[in-house]
Automatic annotation (TrEMBL):
The gene is hxlA_1. Pfam families: OMPdecase. This is 3-hexulose-6-phosphate synthase. GO terms for molecular function: 3-dehydro-L-gulonate-6-phosphate decarboxylase activity; hexulose-6-phosphate synthase activity; orotidine-5'-phosphate decarboxylase activity. It comes from Oceanobacillus picturae. The keyword Repressor does not apply. It catalyses: D-ribulose 5-phosphate + formaldehyde = D-arabino-hex-3-ulose 6-phosphate. GO terms for biological process: 'de novo' pyrimidine nucleobase biosynthetic process; L-ascorbic acid catabolic process; one-carbon metabolic process. The keyword Lyase applies. Belongs to the HPS/KGPDC family. HPS subfamily.
Amino acid sequence: MKLQLALDRLSREECFRILEETKASVDIIEVGTGVIKEYGMEIVRQVRARYPDKTIVADMKTCDAGKHEAKQAFDAGADITTVMAFSGDLTITDTLRVAKEHGSRIMIDLLEVDKAERVEELVGLGVDLVSLHVGKDKQQEGSFDTGLFALVKDHDIEVTVAGGINADTLPDIIEGKPNTVIVGSAITKAKSPREAAVQLKELLSQG
Ligand SMILES: O=C([C@H](O)CO)[C@H](O)[C@H](O)COP(=O)(O)O
């Protein structure tokens, strides 16, 4: 199981400090939506330049103008870019096509999706990587809900999970056997991001 570090609500300097501290434990670097909004695609280019061997996700949360936004992410050096599940089917297929042309991938963010039918449709469109996600705002009512695994149980696709995940909640989540666990705040807001990442990575290795 891989560990994906989400860099959200951080300055450029904080992003690079935390990356340096945690790089040994982190498999995938996610440049968060808010960080991209603050610094533009340039921050993705800078992360790529500094970490040429890491897998990089640009959390673009695209929902329209898919071809253009996917190209922006891949041209900046991302290996994977995110597209919202509620987007029109043409946005999904356009972004999948751009990803194929670039030898890259699309991760579909299932934020607020509660019907397995949408997942079925997405898989029918060619989607092979999704994120089960409890959003930052919704986390006021509770963090990642393992009930979300039901959405993907009938499909042979790669699954990532996100939403306020930490060392206390991780053991239950591991039971669902996701391919990748995305962690933001539990690492970036920790007193020692390095120690937090080491602990989470250890739990994932045991899982
Ligand atoms: O995608 C995310 C969220 O929508 C903010 O942009 C986060 O990267 C994701 O939820 C992981 O962060 P934490 O919830 O802080 O672990």
